[in-house]
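Section 3.1 - Work completed
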Amino acid sequence: MNNGSTIYGSILDRIGRTPLVELGGIRPEGCARILVKIEAENPTGSMKDRMALAMIEAAEADGRLKPGGHVVEYTGGSTGVSLAMICAAKGYTLSIVTSDAFSLEKRNHMAALGADLTIVPSDNGKMDEALTRNMVEAAKGIAEESGGFWTNQLANADQISAYHRMGDEIWEQTGGELDAFVAMTGTAACSRGNSEALHRHNAAIYCVAVEPAESPVFSAGRTGAHKIEGTGAGFVVPLWDETQVDEISTVSTEDAIATCRKLAAFEGIFAGTSSGGNVATAIRLGMKLGPDATIVTIMCDSGVKYLTTAVYAAGANKARIWDGSKARG
């Protein structure tokens, strides 16, 4: 019996249409209203479900990807998990190139969904330009050897349409009542696509792109290593378009992690490091814009993807061990 609820024909039909939630517990006095797009409600717990589906559907439409075909990608994890889910649902096989710089949860999730993994070693778990380029070369080699379709997320403009739809959702959900938008940059498609969509609705919306302070490629032309997963490739990525951005801001790994923990403890929002970076930057901007302004930012993915990382693992080590000898009979 339906009981009025919606029955979906595929898990892919549940991608998008995620809610906005207003922050209260960590919003300082005098700060703008901050709304967070809860992308963790997508099927794999990540906004990357949107862009992965857009890349696959575009390749299907123009014949680059045939029924029963093979897909190849390099990824920090979330795009790979999204591709693995989509390939499983559509009947494609998948080869993923990733690294030990990214969480074990993401790697296990990709494998559980049927992806074949190739791991590129990192420099002490850090994300930097060398790691990104090594992953790209490995994926390119696998695609050439297998004859598979390489989604090539850093250069694939097909994904931007998914973020146009996300920007349109934000506009509709806020009734157009927003003053600023904040998004961290990885492939740069999220920041670019949302900014393009929002600027089409209202050119006065202040759009901020965020990058790791340790690797300020866009703002200072300097590359470096950081630990904010899914962001900061270490070089100017092909999809970057500064004409759609009103400000380039930076956030440190330390601040991103600290804000993650505050979101969990005071908002009940369990998120990853890129989400922490988004919210930290939104709060900083909010203090400048004041309490009458509204800022929208993104919960990029779920904290479930980071349980064994330094972001959250330390909490479990503080747990008390029950002393059974004190129990009453």
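Second construct:
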Amino acid sequence: MAKGYRGPAAGGRGQGNMMAQLAKLQEQMQQAQADLAEETVTETAGGGAVSVTMTGAQVCKAIEIAPDLLEDADVEMLQDLVLTAINKALDSSRQLSEEKMSPFTSMLGGFGF
């Protein structure tokens, strides 16, 4: 046998190391997801007349409507502005999530996932 040959046991340690790395990665991903649930994005529509605040986990936290917008009582316009602001906030929330989670998806690719 060649000097320094350790046989099949060496492969087992490599798997243990990989499992430890995966466990650490999972812990980091859970922390990133918890952080996303706390971070917020705010988007507006109608020149700031409607404002929507959403978390990185895509939970709507607030909708603000300028009082003078309600004086006109144009329901359809208000509905359109709210819808636009919500969709913009959802897009920003998704983008924030992708930015925070992309390091993990590229790491998982290195593990063959």
